[in-house]
C-alpha cells in the first residue's frame, strides 16, 4: 500500500484547527495549543482547551483522526454545471467558527435523537427501512435513538400536487417542533411523501441550522417514483435496490441531523455535509465526514472515533456498502499497525 500523504495542495489545516509545527514542546499545553507528534511530524491541535478538562483527558495521538491524508479525504472537486455550489454561494465554516456560533450540544438528559415516522396521502416508511436508519443513527452520532409514535400530518401541513403529491418541508418542521419529547436533542421525520420548499421544487431532506427538527423523504429513492401520485414501497420490486435506498437515506438523515448540530454545508472536502442539487450529485458524496466536520461532531458528541468506525463496518457489510467497508477497514488497519 502506498504511503498516505497529507493533502498539501488543499489541506485546510486552519479550518480543522491544526497547525504544522516544527518547534514545539511535546505535550506542552498553552491556552489554545497543544503539540502532538504523529508519524514524525509535530502538529499543534488548536483550541484543545475548549474540551472538557481542557483536553487533558484526550489520548496523545488524538490528532491522528483529523490529519487530512489524501488517501481518505479528497479536496472539494470543481462543481459541475448544475451542482449545488454552482447555484449557491456557501460561506465556509471552520471548527472555531462553528464553536463561536454557540450551538446547542447534547448534555444531561437532552441527548436523545428521535425518529418520527410521518405520512400524508401515502403509507408510512416501512419498518425494514426505519430499522437500519435507527441503527446507523446510533452508530454515527453515538447517542441514544428512539422512535416516536407515527402520525399522519396531511390535515396540518401545506401540500400540493406537482405531478406527484408533495408536502412543504418547512411546514413539516414547524408542525414537528411542539411534538418532540422533552428529553430530545433533536428529531428527524421520515416520510415516503415527496418534499418541496418555496425555494426548491423538490428536496431529499430539510432541517433548520442548529434547530431541533428536520425531515427526510425516501420518495425519490424508490424505483417506482413518479408512476403514481403517491409513493408506494413495493418490497418485491425494491429488493435488489434496498441496500442503495438504505445507503442514500442514511446519508440524507446524517446530513440533516448534522445541520441540527450546527454544521453548515462543507466546502473544504468531498464530505457527507456537501450540498446536493440532484440525486446524481448526492450519490457522489461520501458517507463519511471530512476532518473539519468530523472534529465538530466529535467535539459535540464526545465519541471515540476509532470505535465508531469499527461499529460502522458490520453495518456497511450487511447492506452491501462495499466501497465504504474498504474505506473503513483501510483506515482502521493503518491505526492497528501503529
TrEMBL record:
<protein>
    <submittedName>
        <fullName>AmzA</fullName>
        <ecNumber>3.4.-.-</ecNumber>
    </submittedName>
</protein>
<keyword id="KW-0862">Zinc</keyword>
<dbReference type="InterPro" id="IPR012962">
    <property type="entry name" value="Pept_M54_archaemetzincn"/>
</dbReference>
<dbReference type="GO" id="GO:0008237">
    <property type="term" value="F:metallopeptidase activity"/>
</dbReference>
<dbReference type="InterPro" id="IPR024079">
    <property type="entry name" value="MetalloPept_cat_dom_sf"/>
</dbReference>
<dbReference type="GO" id="GO:0006508">
    <property type="term" value="P:proteolysis"/>
</dbReference>
<keyword id="KW-0482">Metalloprotease</keyword>
<dbReference type="GO" id="GO:0046872">
    <property type="term" value="F:metal ion binding"/>
</dbReference>
<keyword id="KW-0479">Metal-binding</keyword>
<dbReference type="Pfam" id="PF07998">
    <property type="entry name" value="Peptidase_M54"/>
</dbReference>
<keyword id="KW-0645">Protease</keyword>
<keyword id="KW-0378">Hydrolase</keyword>
Amino acid at each position: 500500500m502506498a504511503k498516505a500523504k497529507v493533502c498539501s495542495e488543499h489541506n485546510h489545516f486552519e479550518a480543522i484547527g491544526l497547525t504544522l509545527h516544527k518547534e514545539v514542546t511535546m505535550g506542552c499545553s498553552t491556552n489554545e495549543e497543544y503539540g502532538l507528534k504523529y508519524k514524525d511530524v509535530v502538529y499543534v491541535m488548536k483550541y484543545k482547551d475548549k474540551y472538557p478538562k481542557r483536553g487533558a483527558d484526550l489520548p496523545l495521538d488524538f490528532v491522528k483522526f483529523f490529519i487530512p491524508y489524501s488517501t481518505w479525504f479528497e479536496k472539494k472537486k470543481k462543481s459541475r454545471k448544475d451542482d449545488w455550489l454552482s447555484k449557491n454561494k456557501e460561506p465556509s465554516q471552520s471548527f472555531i467558527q462553528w464553536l463561536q456560533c454557540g450551538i446547542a450540544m447534547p448534555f444531561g438528559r437532552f441527548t436523545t435523537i428521535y425518529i418520527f415516522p410521518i405520512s400524508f396521502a401515502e403509507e408510512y416508511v416501512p419498518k425494514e427501512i426505519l430499522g437500519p436508519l435507527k441503527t446507523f443513527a446510533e452508530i454515527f452520532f453515538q447517542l441514544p435513538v428512539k422512535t416516536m409514535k407515527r402520525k399522519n400530518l396531511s390535515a396540518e401541513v401545506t401540500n400540493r400536487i406537482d405531478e406527484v403529491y408533495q408536502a412543504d418541508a418547512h411546514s413539516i418542521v414547524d408542525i414537528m417542533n411542539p411534538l418532540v419529547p422533552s428529553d430530545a436533542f433533536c428529531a428527524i421525520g421520515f416520510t415516503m411523501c415527496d418534499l418541496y420548499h418555496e425555494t426548491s421544487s423538490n428536496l431529499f431532506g430539510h432541517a433548520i441550522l442548529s434547530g431541533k427538527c428536520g425531515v427526510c423523504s425516501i420518495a425519490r429513492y424508490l424505483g417506482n417514483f413518479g408512476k403514481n401520485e403517491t409513493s408506494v414501497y413495493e418490497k418485491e420490486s425494491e429488493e435488489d435496490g434496498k441496500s442503495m435506498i438504505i445507503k442514500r437515506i442514511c446519508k440524507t438523515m446524517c446530513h440533516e441531523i448534522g445541520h441540527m448540530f450546527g454544521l453548515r454545508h462543507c466546502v473544504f472536502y468531498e464530505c457527507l455535509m456537501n450540498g446536493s442539487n440532484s440525486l446524481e450529485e448526492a450519490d457522489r458524496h461520501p458517507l463519511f465526514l471530512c476532518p473539519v466536520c468530523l472534529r465538530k461532531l466529535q467535539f459535540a458528541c464526545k465519541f471515540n472515533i476509532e470505535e465508531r468506525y469499527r461499529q460502522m463496518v458490520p453495518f456497511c457489510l450487511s447492506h452491501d456498502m462495499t466501497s465504504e467497508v474498504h474505506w473503513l477497514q483501510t483506515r482502521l488497519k493503518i491505526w492497528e499497525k501503529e
